[in-house]
Design brief:
The complex is a heterodimer. Chain A contains 18 helices and 16 strands. By secondary structure, chain A is an alpha/beta fold. Helix content of chain B is about 30%, strand content about 20%. In chain B, helix 1 runs antiparallel to helix 3. The chains are: A alpha/beta, B alpha+beta. The interface between A and B is medium-sized, with 26 and 22 residues.
Chain lengths: ~525, ~100
């Protein structure tokens, strides 16, 4: 029995779950080879067939995207070419598990090296296939989490998700993982609460835990008071969800009849596939860092990504943010190692230092603009000179595209207001097309509390009077100067923070897609003056 | 004696996402419906890979705009090539650009 502990993570799928933890990597069984090549070959062939049958059985029960992922895996497992290199290695003296691992790792490396993000993402399917066959070989049980368990581990595979019975509740907590993975998509579609990026947690299988995937918290071995609070919050959440779902298609409006625009934040183009455009007011923040996760992206790759989201949104606005690397988002070959990265060369500062990189993105944005209602925003702007320098680059690239006869359009250029200097003196940016308040960074800079430091997490509250006062100043300035102001940080989807943000004068929030119904419901419960 | 009917063709991949998982599953399934040996390449000079193997077809990572070279050998070689070219030209019977993740 361990001791009570709690951890914070990123919500990948909202909801509440409680139950015993089930450690995904707890089965330490290893394969022991027979030393006989013919036996090893026979075992591998049988294991591949059994894995194929198991995935086919899952496929028979799945629908939509899930069925397609599984159909691909079945086809791969049915193909003799997949095991051929392993069988050769077995003849060379390898045991079945080593031969299979080496052959599949080589395939996986091939997919990971692909230029196309789609092919890179298939490496997760190949890993899934590799591990499933290894489990059969070593006689490990299938993922047999008890009903209602909270699955905890480094990663969860799509088939691991699909072979789990979610009928009795349960949830997912990953030490790593991303909210844009296949599994996160499946979890949102199935309504399974999921937290990612909680880091290492010293807990054991069967430890009772509470998963609050609304505020992003895991509590292992909670005390009585925590259990009581959790129950209250989860019941309130269930009632809200039911009410919120029925309101999704309506415009968000406060109790005193003030309309509030609610748009979504997207981290990569695939995010929009699961959002009904009719339920939101466009995209308030499209991050572009995903493009840089394997080095610097070319113009065509970027253009395709931007175009996809613009076409999905139709006439509704899509705000794309130029690359915001640095700080807690390093990009190899681009960002600079600094002792205090949050106060260093990040966002627009870095982009302007590497104009050859920024120009590629600018060209892709200019060429994407005719496909929809594009707006572009610059991150981490603190001085007017930065805005002017970026604007000049846009103009230069537009002129070059025009000279080359390439179709393009100039999008309105706005700024993120996330550095206190910009919030305190917004008149410096009176020529910007719009302001979008980045509440996460604004809060950390105003409170001097780093976002990635759990020890000061309690200070990072957007509702601190100092932060709210700055937000009000920006909103007031925007109204007087005729500059639209929105907010795109996590605070925008926090039911606790929304009344204060409305009272500060905001009328446009951009939220994570999973938070959309709850944010709209919170607005509907609030008045425009808090 | 072997009836060595040969057939070949080249066809442009116009599917929005190229020769990805779902199109590859369809292509290899269709190829396996024929007795002929069917090979595929991204260049007229090869290297040629087995069009009935999804592992190998996926590994070509053929993007949109790639030209696929097909060749078949066997009694139903002509039909096989016609059917495969038809499938690719019809964008694998998917609405192109429907944006589904596969």
């Amino acid at each position: 029995m361990g001791t009570r502990l709690s951890a914070r993570g990123i919500v990948a799928s909202t909801g509440y779950a409680s139950g015993p933890l089930f450690l995904l990597e707890s089965d330490g069984r290893v394969y022991s080879g027979s030393g006989d090549a013919a036996v090893e070959a026979g075992r591998l062939t049988l294991a591949v067939t059994q894995a194929r049958d198991a995935v086919a059985a899952l496929m028979a029960m799945a629908e939509g995207d899930a069925a397609e992922i599984l159909e691909f895996q079945v086809a791969m497992l049915e193909d003799d070419s997949l095991s051929a290199p392993s069988l050769d290695a077995i003849l060379g003296g390898s045991d079945a598990a080593d031969a299979w691992t080496a052959a599949l790792d080589a395939e996986i490396a091939g997919y990971e090296a692909a230029e196309d993000a789609y092919f890179r993402a298939r490496s997760a399917d190949l890993r899934d296939i590799r591990d499933r066959v290894l489990r059969v070989l070593s006689g490990s049980a299938e993922l047999a989490a008890p009903a209602g368990a909270l699955l905890f581990g480094r990663e969860l595979t799509p088939t691991g998700f699909l072979s789990t019975d979610w009928g009795a509740g349960g949830g997912i907590v990953l030490s790593h993982g991303s909210s844009t993975s296949h599994v996160a998509m499946l979890a949102r579609a199935r309504g399974v609460p999921m937290l990612v990026g909680v880091g290492s947690v010293e807990a054991a299988s069967d430890d009772f835990a509470l998963l609050d995937a609304e505020r992003g918290r895991l509590i292992v071995l909670p005390d009585t008071e925590e259990r009581h609070e959790f129950l209250k919050a989860s019941v309130a959440y269930a009632q809200l969800v039911n009410a919120a779902r029925s309101q999704m298609h309506r415009e968000a409006m406060t109790t005193d009849g003030v309309a509030v625009a609610v748009s979504v934040n997207v981290a990569q183009p695939a995010d929009v596939e699961h959002i009904d455009i009719g339920t939101c007011d466009g995209v308030g923040l499209m991050r572009t860092e995903f493009l840089y996760d394997r080095g610097l992206p070319d113009e065509a790759t970027q253009l395709a990504a931007y175009r996809k989201v613009l076409q999905w949104a139709g006439e509704k606005p899509v705000v794309i943010r130029t690359v915001d690397a640095g700080g807690d988002k390093p990009v190899p070959g681009f960002t600079i190692e600094e002792s205090n990265p949050f106060l260093g060369t990040r966002g627009i500062r870095l982009a302007l230092k590497r104009p050859e990189v920024l120009r590629v993105q600018i060209r892709a944005l200019l060429r994407a603009a005719p496909y929809g209602n594009l707006k572009v925003m610059l991150p981490m702007v603190s001085a007017a000179a930065e805005y002017d320098a970026a604007q000049a680059l846009f103009e230069e690239e537009a002129a070059a595209l025009a000279a080359a006869g390439i179709p393009h359009a100039m999008p309105p250029l706005g700024i993120m207001v996330e550095v206190p200097a910009a919030a305190l003196a917004p008149e410096q940016f009176a020529h910007a097309a719009f302001f979008s308040i980045g509440s996460n960074d604004l809060t950390q800079y105003v409170m001097a509390a780093a976002r990635d430091n759990g020890a000061v997490a309690g200070l990072g509250d957007v509702r601190h009077p100092a932060v709210l006062r700055l937000i009000r100043m920006v909103a007031d300035f925007g109204r007087e100067a005729g500059i639209p102001v929105s907010l795109c940080g996590d605070a925008g989807s926090s039911p606790e923070a929304i009344p204060a943000l409305l009272a500060a004068g905001l009328r446009h929030l951009s939220v994570a897609p999973a938070q959309l119904p709850m944010a709209k419901a919170a607005i509907a419960r609030a008045s425009s003056h808090g | 004696m072997e009836d060595a009917t040969l057939a070949q063709a080249q066809v442009l991949v116009t599917h929005d996402v190229g020769l990805h998982a779902r199109p590859s599953v369809k292509l290899t399934k269709l190829a396996k419906a024929f007795g002929a040996r069917i090979d595929l390449a991204l260049a007229a000079t090869g290297p040629w890979i087995d069009a009935k193997s999804i592992v190998k077809v996926m590994a070509t990572k053929a993007p949109k705009g790639a030209t696929l070279y097909l060749r078949a050998e066997g009694t139903d070689a002509e039909n096989a090539i016609n059917a495969l070219v038809g499938l690719i030209e019809r964008d694998f019977d998917e609405r192109s650009g429907n944006g589904h993740a596969t």
